[in-house]
Amino acid sequence: MTRKEFLTQLKKSLGGVPETEKREILADYEEHFTSGLAEGKSEEEIARLLGNPRILGKSFHIDNLLGETGAPRRAGAVIRALYASLSLGLFNIIFILGPFAALFAVLVSLWSVALSLALSGAAVILAVILQPLFPALISFEGLNILLVLLTAIGAGALGLLALIGMWRLSRWFFIATGKYIRFNLGVIKK
Fold it and tell me: Which has the closest alpha carbon to 110: 186, 166, 54?
């Protein structure tokens, strides 16, 4: 592969990278070719040593989405980085999409449980409050109303705590996913 072919493929692969960064990256790789030629290497040898320009471009795009630390500021950036990494091949479909889908399903399930717990507690509290107004519709026959109310308050409070915990867990999940994508990208580059 010649210098021109390498740089053309690299530029094409840098689709989502901002223009200023794209120019810097291309200038860096242009410099690699210049210094390699000065050392007596051929363009083909330099291109081979630099690696696959398609993978390099995608890795810069993923790095841009994930930020410097690998901990993105938004979940959407992780999803876009995940999508970009899937385009690198079958290896990534198996080793990124599979674990992500399974863990994301668990995360959604836990959100459902936390939300259901909070809403059911609130619904029972509301039912206890409205029961004197609608005795024909809401009945607590044979139940201690104070026990029902305290149980509902406990369930609602537990649900709210679970929602707060899920918020934190979701942040950790997307940070860990970003780091895993970056790790996986390092494996592919080698």
Answer: 166
Q: Which residue has the tokens 């690198």?
A: 88
Angle at CA 91, nearest 5°, toward 100 and 77?
40
pTM of the model: 0.62
What type of residue sits at position 38? A
| Amino acid in position 17 | V
Query: For residue 49, what pLDDT is reported?
Result: 86
First to last CA, the chain: 19
- Per-residue pLDDT tens over the stretch 141-179: 888 999 999 999 999 999 999 999 999 999 999 888 888
* Nearest C-alpha neighbor of 149 from the set 122, 109, 117, 111: 122
What are the CA-CA distances from residue 51 to residues 22, 44, 46, 59, 86 (Å)? 18, 11, 9, 12, 19
